[in-house]
Amino acid sequence: MKYIYVENYLKISREMKLEFLKFMYCFKRFKIINQKIVLNDNSLILELSVDSSFNIAKKSIDLFFKKNKDIKSFFTDRLLIEKNTLYLFNDNNLIKEVKLK
After folding, report:
1. In the chain, is it the N or the C terminus that has fewer CB atoms within a 10 Å radius of its CB?
2. Smallest Cα–Cα separation from 81: which of 70, 96, 91?
3. C-alpha torsion angle, residues 87, 61, 32, 36 (rounded to 10)
């Protein structure tokens, strides 16, 4: 599976969250199949279908949040929860660690 991690997503307004999700669901080149919220990091994890274009999805996210410098997005291909910590990996490299409690 591949995911896009949207850091600081929960810090935006409710209206902007709704606008963002409407924006993301209008594309045909990628399809969101699941969303996960990471409360301890104020972030959103979007799981995309296997046939999705991840580059287009990430560029679309970056374009949407272009004016909001607090929002960052990056690819992750593996999520692991172990000992109350969420680990995010890309190409077997640890890219982020989030304490869950």
Report:
1. C
2. 96
3. 40
SS3 sequence of 53-84: CHHHHHHHHHHHCCCCCCCEEEEECEEEEECC
In a domain, 89, yes or no: no
Question: What are the φ/ψ torsions at residue 18 (nearest 5 degrees)?
Answer: -65, -45
Predicted confidence band at 54 (pLDDT cuts at 50, 70, 90)? confident
- pTM for this one? 0.88
- The CATH number of whichever domain residue 45 belongs to comes to 3.30.70
Range of the domain at 13: 3-73
Other Cβ atoms closer than 10 A to 19: 13
Q: How many domains does the chain have?
A: 1
For residue 86 the two structure tokens come to: 């969420």
